Amino acid sequence: MTRPVPTLGNPKNTIEILNKYKFVFQKRYGQNFLIDEHVLGKIIRSAGITEEDFVVEIGPGIGTLTQYLAASARQVAAIEIDDALIPILEDTLSGYDNVMVIHDDVLKVDLAKLAEEENGGKPVKIVANLPYYITTPIIMGLFENHVPVESITVMVQKEVADRMKTGPGSKDYGALSLAVQYYARPELVANVPPNCFMPRPRVGSAVIRLQRHENPPVEVQDEKLMFQIIRASFNQRRKTLVNGLGNAPELRIPKEQTTAVLEEMGLNPGVRGEALDLQQFAELSNRLKKILE
Fold first, then answer.
1. Alpha helices per DSSP H over 132-251
2. Are the C-beta atoms of 198 and 188 separated by less than 8 Å?
3. So what CATH class is 11-212?
4. What pLDDT was estimated at residue 30?
5. Domain at 223-292, CATH homologous superfamily
């Protein structure tokens, strides 16, 4: 069927809706609504939304991006935590018969169950303009909970997008970089300046697409152990990796054991975690697992 053309995405219509409902922006939810139709179109194209897709949108706000998704996808599940936005969404999405609004905290929603019930367990596409304060928990939750995801296309703080795609040796490189690259292939789609939002954020933003790997690019015997090692390596990033693993309460790996393994790998025992790539962390994890068993 033919669906309505999106009406939101330009400042005039956005202001009208906000005034109609006397909406007050909530700082605690990090609300910044997109008001640039060019950027909205770019998100839809880069996410590769087709009429066969079931899309999960996190944080729909007043329904701006939701309208664009609904015009392209088979079905959209929009998860919104803010009580004040629910009546607005009922209004702005009233012309679309393929949107379900879920009034809940996304961190409490069983997305795997949602995919099973609404998409026959097939992988879903995630699209979102994510609040900056909660970006990492949401991204990591999607991956670590093994939600069936084909791709994640999100608007995030520019600095976070840089962290997701960078490699060893960069100041932005860390646990998030390694986790994202273990699960997916990150691709920067666009940089988005503050004037594309209402209200304007103080920092620049970026759209990044994470295409899920069919199989991880490295072989790891114990994913949980590898990520414990990675987190411990970056918790005190100025410390050596040997000290980081020795000080981590959940690991407490004796320094002489880590030193011996690093030497077997041809690495200097004084190396810091920020110098190791994903392959090296996987090898370190597999070698330490044998010793710890």
1. 135-144, 158-165, 175-183, 223-235, 241-247
2. no
3. alpha beta
4. 79
5. rRNA adenine dimethylase, C-terminal domain (1.10.8.100)
